[in-house]
Amino acid sequence: MKKTWTEDEIALMAEKAAGMHATGCNCAQSVFLMFAEQGGLDRETARKLLQAFGGGLAVGEVCGALSGAAAALGLLADPVPPGDMEAKMAFSQRTRALAEAFREGAGALRCEALRPEDMEARRAVCGGYIRLGVRLAAEALMK
After folding, report:
1. pLDDT over 90, % of the chain
2. Residue 125 Cα to chain centre, angstroms
3. What count of other Cβ atoms lies within 10 Å of the Cβ of residue 133?
């Protein structure tokens, strides 16, 4: 699926996602929820699917904002037919490009490397990664 958004729409989605994080969603949920309904998922199901991805799978690994963006890409991109290695490799390249763009924008991929220990500081910093994840997911889906 290819979707187009204007810069203003992406900015609005990014702000909404950051606001969701401020009210209790994890980073992955906050990003993914901006795309879930377009993929046919209701908000509750989408929220439940991504609840384990916050905090880098709760152990500081891949940033939840990137995980949410990758999940959005998987949900809304054209499906890869089973056994189609060319399509699988092409999709893997899209995912790799998304991760590299996130690394370039955030400075790292790992939650542990990105987030401060202080919870108040974390909310502010993670909001920026969430905005980045929304923007990069939208850009990846428009390619």
Report:
1. 90
2. 15
3. 31
Residue-level pLDDT at 1: 53
Q: Quickly state the pLDDT bin for 56 (edges 50, 70, 90).
A: very high
Quickly tell me which residue has 């202080």 as its tokens.
118
Do 116 and 122 touch, CB atoms closer than 8 A?
yes
DSSP assigned state of 110: B
DSSP state of 42: -
On the question of pLDDT at 52 being above 90, the answer is yes
The answer to whether the CB of 136 falls within 8 A of the CB of 98 is yes
The answer for residues whose C-beta is within 8 angstroms of residue 129's C-beta and 6 or more apart is 27, 63, 65, 66, 106, 114
The model's pTM: 0.95
Burial class (CB in 10 A: 0-12, 13-18, 19+), 41: middle
The two structure tokens encoding residue 45? 């199901």
Query: Between vectors from CA 109 to CA 93 and to CA 70, what angle results, nearest 5°?
Result: 45
The helix, strand and coil proportions of the chain, stated in percent and rounded to the nearest 5, come to: 75, 0, 25
Cα-to-chain-centroid distance, residue 80: 20
State the Cα–Cα distance between residues 90 and 92, nearest whole angstrom.
5
